[in-house]
Amino acid sequence: MNKNIERLYNGLWKENPTFVLMLGMCPTLAVTTSAINGIGMGLSTTVVLVLSNMMISALRNIIPDRVRMPAFIVVVASFVTIVQFLMQGFTPSLYASLGIYIPLIVVNCIILGRAESYASKNPVIPSMFDGIGMGLGFTVGLTLIGVVREILGNGSAFGVNIPALNDYHITLFGLAPGAFIVLGFLVAIMNVVRRKMEAAGKPLPAVQGCLSGDCSSCGLSSSCTGKSLVHNTPEEIPVDPKDVAKPQPETKIEVKHTANAKNTEDVEKSGSDSSYADDDIVGKEEDK
Amino acid sequence: MNYVTGLILLLVSSAIVNNVVLSQFLGLCPFLGVSKRVETAAGMGGAVIFVITIASFVSSVIYKYVLAPTGFQYMQTIVFILVIAALVQFVEMFLKKSIPSLYKSLGVYLPLITTNCAVLGTAINNVTNNYDILESVINGFGVAVGFTIAIVIMAGIREKIEYNDIPETFKGSAIVLITAGLMAMAFLGFSGVI
Questions:
Q1: What is the ipTM of this complex?
Q2: B17 vs B115: which has the higher pLDDT
Q3: Rounded to two decimals, what is the model's pTM?
């Protein structure tokens, strides 16, 4: 039981997917125009995440390792389709405002990432709590960003008009540029928090997903050979102490390395400058 | 004639007015991850144009001639993502064997695109908007051109940003996101065009 509560705490706070791991940025930017949309997207992702975690965990000994990724994708896509039709039937207005981002839950890094790194290695019940924790953490993140954008952009919160702000809202924050700018400031704030925590001797887990510029955390990384764009040589992949604690399956590591080596050659052969490796990993600079 | 005008408008609309990155937020991962050098960004853009155009065509053919007649429309998400993943692998193998020169310039970027939500998003958008096959291809091409425009501009700006004195806190992805916000603001100016 303790382990399950630890999973919830882990998802909601310690490794919050929005604020700490910075995963799933496409829906984060797109649907946080209001707090209600944020909650809706967060909860539908949670449902998919919990169900797919449970299913993948239950099937973890049946699915052959080689076809792991396609199998995960089919499981996730089936649950997404179910959730999509339920939402279309029961919450049509929310369905309309979330639109294309509901089917796109399939490619959300959080879901395949959790399937790969947790559910495929752990029993059903902890996987379920892992899904609940991560999903609620994502929901809280989206809701908070949604509230901020709604107050700044529309002068309301959760759909309730705030009279004091009637003349003082900036419509831009409800539109696309506002999303990027709010997220930019969020990353900056998290950079400060990161540095403070590091100074206090309790460093936060590293940023994963798109914002780290590091594909290795992505759920599909084992089938992705394009990593050499970010890391030119396998030696340069920063080793996360967390990853060492949770060793990856042997085959996956082999795939990664051969893929990287192959692509390094390709890049060099093509004669383009090999300066990709010089690039610092975005968002990890402050860790140094 | 009206049909042709519609196609041109569709192309402009999907490439510039409803830019896939800056107003739809699709394909953010490569937009943030592969936009450090202009050459890399252009290569990525080329690969995306190639893949999205083909994927739009294939997915809309499959939808029209396989899913719709058999009443399996509700399988679209599952079918599309598998088709796209298989397609990218296939395109990679085909290029490697038949057009090595093109493979050399685009090859490394291709697998990166499988997980790109812009490809799946475009395929689903084509179906949702009831585009026919030609319209789907044009829309896919436009979306990809929009992506290329955005990522190349971004890479150009980032090459300059490197020499600037930015506050320590904003270094890395924070300043990139705020720059993207300013670019999105500029693209917002196109919103009245069509």
A1: 0.89
A2: B17
A3: 0.81
| Three-state DSSP class for residue A140 | helix
The answer, for B46 touching chain A at a CB cutoff of 8 Å, is: no
* B111/A104 touch (CB, cutoff 8 Å), yes or no: no
Q: Which of A284, A288, A274 is nearest to A232 (CA)?
A: A274
Q: Is residue A286 included in any domain, yes or no? A: no
Among the listed residues B85, B62, B63, B137, the one whose alpha carbon sits nearest the alpha carbon of residue A106: B85
Provide the residue range defining the domain that includes A96. 2-278
Asked if the structure places residue A283 within a domain, the reply is: no
Is the confidence at residue A284, as pLDDT, over 80? Answer: no
CB contact at 8 A, A3 and A122: no
Question: Using a CB-CB distance cutoff of 8 angstroms, which residues of chain A are in contact with residue B177?
Answer: 180-181, 183-184, 187
Q: Can you tell me the distance from the alpha carbon of A206 to that of A187, in angstroms, rounded to the nearest whole number?
A: 13
Shortest Cα distance, chain A CAs vs residue B2, angstroms: 28
* Domain tally, chain A: 1
Two tokens at B181? 């916000």
CA distances from A259 to A70, A112, A176, A210, A255 (A): 18, 20, 36, 20, 6
